[in-house]
Write a structure and sequence with these properties.
globular, alpha/beta, 5-stranded mixed β-sheet
């Protein structure tokens, strides 16, 4: 009988759904499953849903699981495997020991990342920025998230908050959901796009509906997306000035309306190029909804002694 193939798993625990994938050592997706996230039922229920998705995959695969990576929304302690801060969309999530719960249930090593860090790991491993040494990852979704890849490795800083470009002030005076003011998230998140359009028109639309209105030539919708694009460009220039990082990969729901944002980004970058003179390169993410889960699997692969058919991966 042939030996069961070895796989790593990646999990993306989002506010609405939880996605799980099984990957080969080369990070090819073997199978995937999705379940609802019980975000209001506490950490144990949320990890339980993730484990359910993983068991669905393992039950229909002959593979041997070597480890699990988890990408989770919020500020996390990646080394301790614990969620530190979570939004009010989640109940009983802050403080939850994620990796300990997964390891008890499955008997394999588990690793935790912030979801945007996992997104960037995925895009570097198998997406838009494969092989890049220095990258800013940015997600434009309900909020705005950021992550840094420096000198070929994820850089999360001493407290796990490096790269959080969505919560840097200097983008006006509007209140942010985090309690601060004037953050990029107040301009470029899906929630902000809907709010800014509502302020202009008195209408309550989703960001997707605002994008459709912009596509029909609605001047207020176009203005809101242009303002978001200018904000994103300024964030890219801040990153280029501070870190000399001039490659950015952008994902998230708002990025699906990238055509509405792109021209304002390009105009702003052309008017104020980085001091280095090196042009900023902005790439749309390639992995779509799989990016966080594949990135989480990439974290597990990097931490484990898995033979990939090439040079041995080193932990990052």
């Amino acid at each position: 009988m042939s030996e069961a193939p070895e796989v790593v798993a990646g999990v993306d625990i989002g506010g609405t759904t939880t996605q799980a994938v099984l990957c080969t050592a080369g990070l090819d997706v073997v199978d995937r499953a999705e379940v609802a996230t019980p975000a209001r039922e506490g950490g144990a229920a949320m990890v339980g849903a993730a484990l359910l998705a993983l068991r669905l995959l393992l039950d229909r695969s002959p593979a041997r699981l070597l480890g699990v990576g988890v990408g989770a929304a919020g500020v996390v302690d990646a080394r301790a495997g614990r969620v530190l801060v979570a939004s009010d969309s989640f109940r009983g999530w802050a403080g939850f020991e994620v990796t300990a719960a997964v390891e008890r249930a499955l008997g394999v090593p588990a690793f935790l990342d912030n979801d945007v860090n996992a997104f960037l790991r995925g895009e570097v491993a198998r997406g838009a920025v494969v092989g890049e040494e220095n990258v800013l990852g940015m997600t434009l979704g309900t909020g705005v998230g950021g992550a840094l890849w420096l000198k070929g490795a994820l850089h999360d800083g001493p407290r796990g908050a490096a790269g959080e470009i969505g919560h840097v002030p200097g983008f006006g005076e509007l209140p942010c959901t985090c309690g601060g003011r004037g953050h990029l998230e107040t301009l470029a998140s899906g929630r902000a796009i809907a709010a800014r359009y509502g302020e202009r028109t008195g209408l309550e639309l989703t960001a997707r509906a605002v994008a459709l209105a912009a596509g029909r030539g609605d001047p207020d919708a176009l203005a809101v997306y242009e303002e978001a694009g200018r904000g994103v460009a300024r964030a890219l220039l801040i990153t280029a000035g501070l870190l000399d990082v001039t490659t950015c990969v952008i994902g998230g729901g708002v990025s699906r309306s990238w055509a509405l944002v792109e021209s304002a980004v390009e105009k702003t970058l052309a008017l104020e190029p980085p001091v280095s003179g090196h042009p900023v390169r902005v790439l749309p993410a390639l992995l779509g909804g799989d990016a966080v889960a594949i990135g989480a699997a990439a974290r597990a692969r990097a931490e484990l002694p898995i033979h990939t058919g090439g040079p041995q991966q080193t932990p990052r």
